[in-house]
Amino acid sequence: MSTETKSAARALPTTHVRQPPSDSGAAVDSYVAIPAATIMIGTITPCDLYTPIGDEQILYWERGIPIDREKRYTIGEQRLTHLYIRGPDQSRYTAYVQQHIERLLGGADAGTADGVERFFVTSRILMEESMAAPAEPESVQTLQQVVSAGMEQLGDGKNLLARLGRVLVQVPDFYAHALQTCLYGLALARGAGLSHRADLNDLGVGLLLHDVGKLELPIYLWHSARPLGEDDWRTVREHPVRGMTILGSSSLFGAITRDVVALHHERLDGSGYPFGKCAAELALPVQIAAIANAFDRRTTTSPYRESRHAVDMLRDMIVGGRYHFSPKLLATFVRLLAA
Ligand SMILES: [Fe+2]
Ligand SMILES: [Fe+2]
């Protein structure tokens, strides 16, 4: 990938762009939200940081201010989840994230509520970059970094919902779903006794990329307010095969990664898609991915489906899904969630 393309792929999410009104009625500047959790003690503000009051963006901290414990505490005190930067300052902020990547993803407070939150918001930014060209060596390396940090944050994997509680999102979000599915899957894999580091890494990357084929689906399928029709579903169900095509023949992806992308919608009784494979053909990592994906997909809201409570969802998976999912793995998952 050319440098130019890669820097375009590194553009930050612009969903929070604000356009403050000017006297003339024309927008004078645009602001981009950044997660407040990424502004850490011991760093220096990379650019001017703003906070909205009414319709106005007020300068919160100037560029070049050292963040000490007291200043960081102020952000928490005021319950600021986001600060804002000027649009043209995005590259300064991206450089700041890259400079502090290891501390942002892990660090001494890994596994605490603050550590998990910072890991989550940083990973989400990195995921968005990587998914623009997932088979590029740089992207694969970034995804592996997210997986390693994710395992560090999970610790022994117990008390999973409480550990992730503050960051789990209830709204539809492609990248958050990928991250949450990855964390659930890695916790379940370790709970099921999978301990080989290379296998866990491959599984984690597969879970992050499991729905990558959906990025090629027509835009209307993402925002449809009505239930999808049979033709729409047929298109959606193509995403595992599209995902395999995106991974291509690159040697950077292991067999487990490829299997997870291709087979995460297969079911033990052969009723899944795209191949209708049955239990004997579905290895443990694929069975883990199926549970992690189904659990996260149905406990978050989509435009055409309300979210289900985690307990209801698990009950359904255990009773209604006993021919779909491994009962032994489900029992392990319940133990992890409830521990
Ligand atoms: Fe999927
Ligand atoms: Fe999924």
Residues in helix, %: 40-55%
Mean pLDDT across all amino acids: 83
Shape: globular
Number of domains: 2
Query: Which fold name corresponds to the CATH topology of the largest domain?
Result: Hypothetical protein af1432
| Quaternary class | single chain
The top-level CATH class of the largest domain is Mainly Alpha
Query: Strands of the biggest beta sheet: in what spatial order?
Result: 1-4
Largest sheet: 2 strands, antiparallel
* Strands, total number: 4
Order of helical and strand elements: HEEEHEHHHHHHHHHHHHHH
**What is the beta-strand fraction?**
5-15%
Distance between the termini: 45 Å
Structural class assignment: mainly alpha
Features:
single chain; 339 residues; mainly alpha; Hypothetical protein af1432; two-stranded antiparallel sheet; 16 helices; 4 strands; 6% strand; globular; disordered N terminus; binds fe (ii) ion
Describe this structure in words.
The protein has 339 residues and is mostly helical. It folds into 2 domains: 1-99, no CATH class; 108-338, Hypothetical protein af1432. It has helices at residues 3-9, 69-77, 90-99, 101-105, 113-131, 137-154, 160-164, 174-191, 197-209, 220-223, 230-236, 239-247, 255-263, 284-299, 310-319, 327-338, and strands at 31-35, 49-53, 56-61, 82-86. Strand 2 and strand 3 (56-61) form a beta hairpin. The longest helix is centred in the middle third of the chain and has 19 residues, at 113-131. The termini are far apart. Bound molecules: fe (ii) ion (2 copies). One fe (ii) ion binds at residues 210-211, 239, 264-265, 293. One fe (ii) ion binds next to helix 8 and helix 14.
